Amino acid sequence: MKSNKNLLLSLLLLSGTALVGCNDQTSSSSMPDTGTGSELSTSSEESSSEQTSSSEESSSSEESTDPAPIVYDITVAAEEGVTATVNQTAEEGEVVHITLAYDEEALTILSVKANDVVCGRDESGVYYFQMPAEDVNIAIESAPIEQVAMRSVTNTTSEIADLVGVGEEAAVGSTVTFALMMKPGFNYTGLTVERFGFVSEVVEHETVEIEGKTYFTFVMPNGDVRITVTATRSSFALDFDSDLITNVYSTPVGETYETSCRNNIAEYGATVRVVLRNSLTEIATGIRVVETGQVVMLEDGENSVTFIMPARDITIVPVADAYYRTLEIVNSEHLTVTAYTMGEDGTLEEADGKAVANETVYVKVDGITEDIGINTLLATYPYSAYYDEEIDLLEDGVDENGYYTFPMPVTDETVTITVTEKNLTLYAGYPFVGSWIGDNLYNGKTGTDVSVGTSNYSFDIDASGIFVKSGTTYTIDSATNAEGPGVANLIEGNDTEPTKVFAYSDKIIFSQYSFNNLTSNDNIWAVKKLNADDENSLYTVDYEIFGDNHYIAIQYYRDGEPYAAGFADYSGNYLDPNYCLDVTFEFTSGAKVTDATAAYKVIDNATDEVLCEVGYSGTGGQGNRFVLDGLQGTYAGEKGDLVLDGTGTATIGEQVYSYSLGEDGNLTLIQGGTTIVVTLGDAVYTVVSETEAENDYIGYTFSGEFTDSDGSTYSMAIAFVDATHAELTVHWGYTQMIPNSSWDEAAEQTYTINADTGVITLNTYDNSGNPITLTLTPGTDGSLTVNEDISWIYATAGTVLTRE
After folding, report:
1. Which secondary-structure segment (H or E) carries 648?
2. pLDDT digits (tens, 9 = 90+) for 709-762
3. How far, in Å, CA of 162 to CA of 33, rounded?
4. What is the mean pLDDT of the chain?
5. From CA 564, how far away is CA 605, in angstroms rounded?
6. Where is the composition biased (Polar residues) (predicted)?
7. Which of 95, 276, 347, 680 has the fewest CB atoms within 10 Å, counting from its CB?
8. Angle formed at CA 62 by CA 60 and CA 64, multiple of 5 degrees
9. Which candidate, 227, 210, 272, places its Cα nearest to that of 247?
10. Rounded CA gap, 356 and 325, in Å?
11. 3-state DSSP call for residue 60?
12. Distance CA 720, CA 727 (A)
């Protein structure tokens, strides 16, 4: 027979009790599970009648070339009161099960041995061993309970592992055999068996590991026993991917510090802390463990939650509510606003005073009629203590379903949707109602080098009189003519009084470009489209600015045909021009106002009167264009023939004068200090008065240039106003340096002429407003030479001034 050690190894190999580790993929136990064997034995008292020998079974089977297996005998030696059920024979390596029957209240089994080798015992109390290559005698030792001391067996680490095959107590001297079933999340590292009492001592135990399975056995001492299992904790995957989770920390069992789960793992049993935050669209309220269904909610005032890491891989997701922002609606007298958001089923639902940031808000306005329209539809919210952010819902119009839309702003402030209405009957029928396109034409440009429909000068005016140009809202406060040309007074933005103005006809609007005045040196001319849906490119324009920018003639075309024309005369006053916005150009030469040799009459369409006549000199063109005054021609009189060129220049013989027609109908001729007043008849003139100048300087201006101490060039001019007064001016480019703000408002400049030498003495002021005297020496060519510096800055000594 083989040794008892081999029998024990074989017995433990086939033990039905398992030492189980973690089943999870990320934990690895050194003691994997093993199943419990099924019952194979019968009662020894009935074995002779029930057992069939291996040789008989062999003889009834088909013939085989393999050698017949060797069968060994099994005998049982049981003490009185114990019955063993077991097979009488078995082959080598076969697992043999022994079932004992006895009065458990009277007897206790001390040991069951096969050839002196301790048999294993499973959870149901069945003993077993693996048949060696020899006959086996099973020795069963028992004792009356009252004669045997029972001692407790305590598992001190039941949270780590279960003891399989041992009860809560065992008889002193009995052999205890057990396996371990590790709890999920633990990795076995060791085991101790200890008798405890007043004096504790370690109980020796044997550990046998067969085919990866570990079993333990020890002899029960005369004292209570505690079994302690040591283990490490497994780590498991902890996945999270959400903008609402900012970080995840874990604190291992027994530790007081936490670390970031940067590698997305955490130890079983660790306290996991999840830090949450709100997104633009969601408010974090807690977390949910997907695999276990565990939900942990945030406490008031907290931004993190904690839970215990289970013994498995997990995924955590945030629990969140929609982050609603507040919506408020302000209706007008007749218009009602309703706000909607898109529901989960793809249909619109009333917003009920709230919407999520960046969610599309759909706005419907009810109450619109032919007489009542939307003036403004704005979504506003405080951006700062001093500024409100504003969304113009009218800017993009309605969508295909008739809703105005905007993305809900990212703000914790209330978003207010406000509608204001306008009265569409107020200016019904007025000429300015319509769609206008234009440009800033009076700024030195000429010809056709301008796009009529530039965005800054395009606007629509409806019958409410409210319109937007260049991003500014204007409201017509009053208009002078409901049927024809007139002037409209405008209120700008949120002002309460009218401060803006434009002139209008049924086809042309005319004003300074920002409506500050009727005109300046920077004007807007706009034309009303015949049909609002006309393409802007259908309209073109020819215009010319001439006469030193004193006149502008403008002709609009629609589809190449003359459509509307206007004419303005700025020669009297830039801020108060003569203008007509409904004219026709009757050409006497050329066909367009931009033709080089264009000459034409400007006819007022309302009265059929000729407003003026435009001619040209030389080769024509802008520089040679002028407005005739109607006086051109030759008139005979006492001083000789008076020739008027129609543009303000007159000649009598070799003398050249400028002329102007007074309100009294008299013509005034001026040459320097000489003034002649005449009346005109039919090709004749009569002198009314004539005034000679007291000296040769009156009415003339003398000018020249000088270089200052820094090398800069300045211009200097002296205008002789009358016999005693003159005006000194100094310019640097277009900037006037003298006079300046340092001069007294009542400052007076005078001059005298030395009768003998002709030297002029000018009493004036320097650049600091201090009184100075300059002397001017006349030259043989009629020039004047300055003899002194105005100041150390303005080195004017030696400057030669010539008559303009």
Report:
1. none
2. 778 899 999 999 888 999 999 999 888 999 998 999 889 999 999 988 899 999
3. 12
4. 86
5. 11
6. 24-37
7. 347
8. 120
9. 272
10. 6
11. helix
12. 7
Instruction: State the first-to-last Cα distance of the chain, in angstroms, to the nearest integer.
Output: 148
Q: List Cβ neighbours of 754 (8 Å cut-off, separation of 6 or more).
A: 760, 761
Say if residues 661 and 629 touch (Cβ distance below 8 Å): yes
Side chain identity at residue 27, one-letter code? S
For residue 440 the two structure tokens come to: 């800033």
| C-alpha–C-alpha distance, residues 627 and 570, integer Å | 12
213 token code pair? 């399975």
Question: How far is the C-alpha of 57 from the C-alpha of 68, rounded, in Å?
Answer: 11
- Give the integer Cα–Cα distance in Å for 478 and 467: 14
Give how far Cα 614 sits from Cα of 92, 566, 610, 611, Å: 136, 14, 11, 10
**66: Cβ–Cβ under 8 A, 6 or more apart, which residues?**
none
d(CA 794, CA 612): 47
Contact in structure between 501 and 515 (CB atoms under 8 Å): yes
- The side-by-side arrangement of strands in the sheet containing 245-251 is 259-260, 245-251, 271-276, 304-308
Burial 261-273 (b: 16+ CB within 10 A, else e): beeebbbbbbbbb
Nearest to 748 by CA among 765, 731, 760: 765
Helix and strand numbers (H, E) in the chain are 3, 68
**Using one digit for the tens of pLDDT, what is the confidence trace for 651-677?**
999 889 988 888 888 999 988 778 899
Closest CA to 82 of 135, 44, 42, 56: 44
Residue 553, CA distances (Å) to 364, 544, 618 in order = 48, 5, 20
Q: What is the pLDDT of residue 618?
A: 86
- Print the SS3 string covering 663-692: CCCCEEEEECCEEEEEEECCCEEEEEEEEC
Q: Domain boundaries in the chain?
A: 1-232, 235-322, 328-423, 434-627, 632-691, 701-803
Q: Identify any residues that bridge with 558 across adjacent strands, giving them in sequence order.
A: 539, 561
User: Could you read off the pLDDT of 64-93 as tens digits, one per residue?
Assistant: 566 788 999 999 998 889 999 999 999 998
Q: Name, in order, each residue with C-beta under 8 angstroms of 345's C-beta and a sequence gap of 6 or more.
A: none
Helix (H, G, I), strand (E, B) or coil at 777: strand
Q: Which long-range contacts (CB under 8 A, 24 or more apart) does 694-697 make?
A: 694/723, 695/720, 695/723, 695/753, 696/672, 697/672, 697/673, 697/753, 697/760
Q: Which tokens go with 621?
A: 């063109």
